[in-house]
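Lab notebook, bench 4. Continuing the backlog of folding jobs that were queued last week. Each job is logged with the same field layout so the records can be merged later without manual cleanup. Today's entry covers Calcineurin-like phosphoesterase family protein, a 488-residue chain. Filled in by technician R.K.

JOB TYPE: sequence-to-structure
TARGET: Calcineurin-like phosphoesterase family protein
LENGTH: 488
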Amino acid sequence: MNKYRNSFFQLSFLWVLIFLTAGNHPVFGQEKTKSLTYTQVKGKVTSKGSQLKNIVVSDGKDVVLTNEKGEFELTTDQEFVFISYPSGYAFDLLENGSVDFFRRVDLTKATNTILFELKPNPNDESDHHFIAIADPQVQTEEEANQFISESCADLSKKKAALNDPNLFGVGVGDLVFDKFELYEQYNQGIKSTGIPFFQVLGNHDINLNARSNESSQEPFTSQFGPAYYSFNRGKTHYIILNDVYFLGAKQYYGYLPETQLAWLEKDLALVPKDKALVIFLHIPSFSQIVAHNPGRDINKESVINREALYKILEGFEAHLISGHVHWNENTVNNHIFEHNTAAISGAWWSGICYDGTPKGYGVYRSDAGDLSWHYQSVGENPDFQFRIYRPGTHPDFPNDYMVNVWNWDPEWKVNVYENGNRTVQSVQVIATDPLAMEIYAPGKPKKQPWISPQKNGHMFVFRPNNPSSKIDVEVIDRFGNQYKKGLD
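JOB STATUS: finished
OUTPUT FIELD FOLLOWS
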């Protein structure tokens, strides 16, 4: 039985890419050759001496429930067995600061015995917060230190402000930038916040010299365990997906393999359709970045087989939280709300993201399953939600004021007041951000050669009736929060 068989490889052009990688050698450790031995896993889930019934346990293929004695059993050829953390229990942590929810399986043994001991959470979880950080993507010691001293310090400040003992975080992929030795500093930063973190695999968290998609994930899995899994907190079910598919020849696409889709179906079969559902994945299922900026590869900027994912999610009100693109975008597609989160590294530690969004992260609250959120810019107050530009700062709109509302979605309102009166209407446009145009103009020094301003859909323009009027801009988010800023 071949565990690597996947319907994706039925596409003939991908076979060519695989053959091209045949002579490559990994740069991260020694690639392991594993036999396809099946092992019988027997285990138990307990808490303070009591056996826990109906706890979800999986190997990434099969999904089973513990019996009345807290016991489970399955036969597997997978590297990990993990639990879907039930609500009401505190998260155990690995030494690196991330959540410990898995056990490694020894495939050379005929039988593995596994124990999960859970600790009751003394705090009511029905109202809780979580933080989503995307693309720390540290490539140098200097960037890693900046992540610790700047980003993680801000996360610690946010933790204190939220004052929520149930707060957790999710690193939404590209934790490092191909430099796996920097996981040590990334982990150091995460531990310094005191926030338990789950991790998502990104395209820069894989070994691009590996011989297969499966073996490419080893730098990540050796640190954080399986690359897809689920857990619960309060009234919300959370899922981590791995949508980075390594093709060989240092190439990848956004793709969800059949094994993972089948596992997702089994996991969700145990979740009531009226339960709040939040899914984290690195590459967004869909992004407008290609439509707004022709020339980019849509297969790398979105999930090719996203319709299969959407089909599985039918009947759920689902929120998808992604990263990867280094910009901010909110997309509503019927029952699916996707939050494409801007990078906490900005444009690869060069400054703001290339759509003008400041470096930052998403802050979410689940109150009995009802989700609310805001974008937190690093080093700024929570009410910093937009930026205003005067006429003459954008060549395409020389006579207009311009506003960048980076966390905008269709329920937001952008109101303009002229001398205290709402006599001016703003117009949404697809445009680049003037500050990004200034910082990343051709010929200006920047860390990475590919950085350039990107057109986006959260820009607004307006023109006052009188150029000498006093201008105020008021932005109201979908939750009724008001943010106001004036210009004389």
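OBSERVATION: Confidence is low (pLDDT under 50) at residues 1-31.
SIGNED: R.K.
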